[in-house]
Amino acid sequence: MTDEKKQEDAARAARAEKRRRRDKTRKDQMGQDRLAESAGPQPAVILVAPQMGENIGAAARAMLNFGLTDLRIVKPRDGWPNERAYALASGAAPLLDNAKLFETTEEAVADLSFIMAATARRRELEIPVIGTGEVGPQLVKCQRGGIASGIMFGPEQSGLTNDDVVLCDYILTYPINPAFQSLNLAQAVAVFSYIWGSRESTAPPDFFDKGEPLPAPRKDLTRMLEHLEDELEKAGFFYPPQKTPLMKNNIRAPLIRGQLTEQEVRTFRGMIKALAKGRGAARK
Question: Which of 248, 238, 234 is nearest to 276 (CA)?
């Protein structure tokens, strides 16, 4: 490496450090606390396999503009932390500092009970679609009911896979021009952040009734589904083999959509275990 290149790298690092120190201050240009707490849980924003650090930084900036602070990143292409993300965050450096990094989508949503997938693509999965006019009241209900919620966005080039989407309760779609549906990742996050910021102040008719059992954490539901799929595999249910992934997703979709409670998940696991033991010789 030449001396000139070393000097350029050192100057770039110094500028980055200066920007990071500036952005770590808790006050914005108006003197307001950047990370002010909201009343109740807020939705997590999950970026699945994002490709460009610039989009992560711009997404963080949009989130903080509307009071969202729970940023989760699944296996970013260029690793983490990413200097390009900080360059575009413009004051939202604390979100990037506190971002949670995961290897899989399942790990990223394990503690959530209400999840949406932001996608414009049609899916062969039978998962209900929710529009921008409906999602605000739903989020208010989650916040007031103490329900841990989240929304996931896919990578810039390919979007979310069916394996990602099947983990969700709803598909969120924007009223986008059908002739041009190429929405930048950071822009998509910004649209959702605006929806959150402008959500209804009065909850709609009952969605999560007060006092009703809460939906089970996704990690418990995932373990139940893996248990069921394992027993079905042993019973020879998945045939022909090439259709196994689709069959598994079609099993998962309605059970996840059913919003099973922790007790219901335990009951299902007991049923699966009892049926498996009842196979007699096949179990030995």
Answer: 234
* Domain-located, residue 23: yes
53 belongs to a structural domain? yes
What mean pLDDT comes out for the span 93-113? 96
- Rounded Cα distance between 20 and 86, Å, is 7
pLDDT digits (tens, 9 = 90+) for 132-162: 988 988 888 898 899 999 999 999 888 899 9
Q: Is residue 54 part of a domain?
A: yes
User: If 0-12 CB within 10 Å is exposed, 13-18 middle and 19+ buried, where does residue 197 land?
Assistant: middle
- Are 59 and 187 found together in one domain? yes
- Asked if residue 95 and residue 230 are part of one domain, the reply reads no
Distance between CA 119 and CA 103 in Å, rounded?
21
What CATH number is associated with residue 183?
3.40.1280.10
State the total domains in the chain.
2
Domain end among 197, 231, 257:
197
Interatomic CA distance for residues 215 and 221, integer angstroms: 10
Domain that residue 272 falls in: 218-283
Q: What is the mean pLDDT of residues 115-121?
A: 88
